Amino acid sequence: MPEEFRLRSVAVAAFGPATLFGLAEGAMIPVIALSSIDRGASTAIAALINALLGIGSIVTNIPSGILATRIGERKSMLLAAAVAVVGLILCLINLGRGPLSLAVFGLGVLLLGAASSVYTLARQSYLTEMVPPPMRARAMSTLGGTLRIGMFVGPFIGAGAEALWGLPGAYFVSLAAMAGAAAVVYRVPDLEKSDEHRAAAAEVTSSVILKQYWRTFATLGLGVILIQAIRQTRQVVIPLWAAHIGLSPTANSIIYGIAGLIDVATFYPSGKVMDTYGRRWIAVPSAIVLGVSFIVMPFTHAVVTLTLTAMIMGFGNGIGSGIVMTLSADASPEIGRPTFLGLWRELSDAGQGIGPLILSGATAVAGLTTGITVSGLIGFAAALTLWIFIPGRPRLTWRRGEGLPS
User: What is the distance between the alpha carbons of residues 349 and 332, in angstroms, rounded to a whole number?
Assistant: First the structure.
């Protein structure tokens, strides 16, 4: 029975690897651009190499679903960890300044993005199967929260390692964390699925899922694109506006860190609310709070007011922890779930790519203030779309695979 289930029963299996994987990413992501420049890249090339992380994820989302269907979630996570280790080793190989060194490094970054896609999808599918539906939102918000904790702590541990070993120190930390995640996953039991279930799932292709669920992708998926757009843009606007009003890099980092702390501190209660009252009671307020924080930001002109605004932004993002994964888990079918989740992740990644592009385009045309305001309007559009297309309070007795709760 769901009331007999406790999240701590899957804490090590699901949340331990998520924290370590987040720590690995958090340690190495801040130094990718610096490592590229150290190998002779221009600023533009460094930005391109940094983008390979997202590109690797985008091109692997759908294959990730196929892989998890064919070999299972646990083996997919182990394979992802192995690929990530190879990617980190390539990132550590420094052949001096030149195209060959940059090519090897870029390949390593690309592999890390691909590994992240495989690992994230398999982990979500695994947790969806393990946790009873009435506790699904709490599980997903905790999963998102533990990943954020790792991402928050990772840069600090990486900075300490860099003080000892230079830029390679950050990758050493990532290697250690990734090895730890693989060790935990290795001890996790496989999901029990019958041969008939696996055979039926293998027949469910991406085209079949698209044909069956295109309305879900076109409606609820639009809301996901919009909320992911503003969530990704929030990572850009704080440093941009801080620089615009003349704050020092140190002040910028502190403000960003405070916002991140608020973010990671607010993830679990949101899951409880979603499980009790319905998904829209977190998704919609999260989008509205993010939109408000964007609209208010151009009116801030000092450290205190910008910090308060950044804290509101962190709160809005934090309470929405796990919402995208929860919605996709709710909508996914029992047969062919990894394939569905792979397509859903394409929508999520599309939103993450579109958000900063909208900010950039609006800023180029009308200035940063207008760019931030336009981005804030995306939050309100996301709130309206999610309110319309997310069903209300979930039934606590719905069966896996029957679609969205209502």
Answer: 18
- Rounded-to-integer distance, Cα 18 and Cα 248, Å: 33
Helix 43-71 vs helix 73-92: crossing angle, to nearest 10:
160
Q: Is the dihedral of CA 82, 38, 173, 148 positive or negative?
A: negative
Predicted TM-score of the model (pTM):
0.85
Q: What is the pLDDT of residues 142-181, one digit of tens each?
A: 888 888 888 888 888 988 888 888 889 999 999 999 999 9
302 torsion bin: left (phi>0), alpha (psi -120 to 50), beta (else): beta
In whole angstroms, what is the distance from residue 147 CA to residue 39 CA? 30
CATH class of 1-186: mainly alpha
**Whether 151 contacts 127, CB under 8 Å:** no
Length of the chain: 406
Residue 184 scores a pLDDT above 60: yes
Q: Which of 320, 292, 288 is nearest to 387 (CA)?
A: 288
pLDDT on residue 33: 80
> In angstroms, what is the C-alpha Rg of the chain?
21
* Token pair in block for residue 224: 């996901």
pLDDT digits (tens, 9 = 90+) for 295-345: 999 999 999 999 999 999 999 999 998 899 999 999 988 888 888 999 999
For residue 332, give the nearest of 127, 146, 141 by alpha carbon.
127
CATH 1.20.1250.20 region(s) of the chain?
1-186, 205-395
Hey, what CATH class is 205-395 in?
Answer: mainly alpha
Q: How far apart are CA 398 and CA 404, in angstroms?
A: 9
